[in-house]
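In the design runs reported in the main text, the only information available to the sequence generator was the tokenized backbone. The following block is the verbatim input for one such run; it is reproduced so that readers can re-run the procedure and compare outputs position by position.
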């Protein structure tokens, strides 16, 4: 499975309609599965995040071309002020992404890695997942970029910001997290809190 994470920027009051239009765009597609559709709430505002899965590179490329050639990509028309579409592969040792109700508060973290940093990052995460199970069971997926600068994007689900803070504090205090050596590979990090659109498969 390959993934596309699209970021649709729009006026803050337009995020609701853009979510609906993006879900309709995904439903019209000949390939790909809509996995998540979120509105940013903390971080850069006025953004809609759309995560889709594809069985083949050819299917992902065809959908990318459809968006690039459209006068109204993601059916959003003149509401869009910016659009980025990033291609990813999953960390190979993680279970398949599971949709459904996962808590309602999502964190999307992207780490731009130092050159050569992906392999040690994968090794560090693989070693840390099981020992930090109480925390990592909230990991929805972790993906590494197939285009652009080397980076990973991991998505987490929690019932509240308070639960997130408590779990992270406990994992750090125990020494189980962060993955040993993982932070050494990070050149730049961003984090966004996003809330699922009512029609999002990850809710």
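Verbatim output:
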């Amino acid at each position: 499975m390959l993934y596309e994470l699209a970021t649709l920027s729009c006026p803050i009051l337009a995020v609701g309609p853009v979510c609906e239009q993006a879900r309709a765009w995904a439903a019209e597609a000949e390939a790909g599965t809509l996995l998540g559709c979120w509105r940013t709430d903390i971080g850069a505002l006025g953004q809609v995040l759309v995560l889709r899965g594809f069985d083949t590179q050819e299917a992902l490329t065809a959908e990318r071309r459809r968006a690039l050639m459209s006068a109204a990509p993601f059916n959003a028309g003149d509401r869009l002020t910016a659009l980025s579409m990033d291609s990813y592969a999953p960390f190979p040792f993680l279970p398949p992404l599971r949709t459904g109700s996962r808590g309602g508060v999502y964190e999307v973290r992207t780490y731009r890695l130092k050159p050569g940093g992906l392999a040690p990052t994968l090794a560090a995460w693989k070693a840390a997942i099981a020992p930090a199970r109480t925390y990592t069971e909230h990991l929805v997926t972790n993906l590494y970029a197939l285009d652009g600068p080397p980076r990973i994007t991991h998505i987490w689900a929690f019932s509240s910001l308070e639960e997130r803070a408590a779990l992270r504090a406990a994992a750090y205090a125990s020494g189980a997290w962060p993955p040993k050596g993982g932070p050494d590979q990070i050149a730049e990090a961003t984090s966004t809190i996003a809330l699922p659109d009512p029609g999002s498969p990850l809710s």
